[in-house]
Amino acid sequence: MSESDLDLFAPEQFSRIAGVDEVGRGCLAGPVVAAAVILDPNRPIKGLRDSKKLSAKKRDELAEEIKEKALAWSVAAMGPEVIDKINILQATLEAMKSAVEKLPVEPDFVQVDGNKLPKWKWLSEAVVKGDDKVEWISAASIIAKTTRDGYMCKIAELYPQYGFEHHVGYGTAEHIKALKAYGPTPIHRKTFAPVREVIDGLSTDSK
Q: What is the spatial distance between Cα 182 and Cα 100, in angstroms, rounded to a whole number?
């Protein structure tokens, strides 16, 4: 079967579909984390949806169930140094590509949340709002979210004054206030405007 013969909107013709999503793209600090998940059709999981629409407790419960029942799952992250070097979009695409590459089972089709695809070898499709429409993308969303949140809660122990356990790096009022009071940490993204403004302000003050 040639690629031109495929109906990309008929996933039932594929046996190993990987769903891919990322978390943390809009944060001021920490990595962007991508996950890839191939679900087992013989072991269905109820309640899969966009991770942002689930409580933290439900996300954690579903993440454990996904890890137990999925045919394969993996995560990959790109840290603030990479984000600052190649920009957040490219870092996100690299994290997605790495997550699929790390899957212990080779997918025959990949569906990605959003409207952009990484440059890779797999037949694939971008699905806008796929994290709430396609169950394997929802599963990837949940794995990515719980993985990143867990990491940021550990980082909070190193930098307790920033409240990372609450905002996990997003630009909340609490985070901006701490950033202005204490300056950026090594995990802050220096090319993001609110962080760059603080750095510029510190440079001005030191002159």
A: 38
Residue with tokens 């995560």: 75
Angle separating helix axes 56-69 and 135-158, nearest 10 degrees: 120
- The arithmetic mean of pLDDT across residues 25-29, rounded, is 97
**Full DSSP string of 6-34:** --TT-GGG-S-EEEEEEE-TT-SBS-EEE
CA atoms of 59 and 47, how far apart (whole Å): 10
- Give the Cα separation of 31 and 39 in Å (integer): 25
How many other CB atoms are there within 10 angstroms of residue 132's CB atom? 16
How confident is residue 147, by pLDDT bands cut at 50, 70 and 90? very high
- What's the rounded mean pLDDT across residues 156-160? 97
163 CB neighbour count, 10 Å cutoff: 15
In the structure, what pLDDT confidence band is assigned to residue 93 with cuts at 50, 70 and 90?
very high
54: helix, strand or coil: coil
The rounded distance, in Å, linking the Cα atoms of 155 and 108 is 36
pLDDT for 207 equals 45
DSSP annotation string for 98-111: HHHHT-SS--SEEE
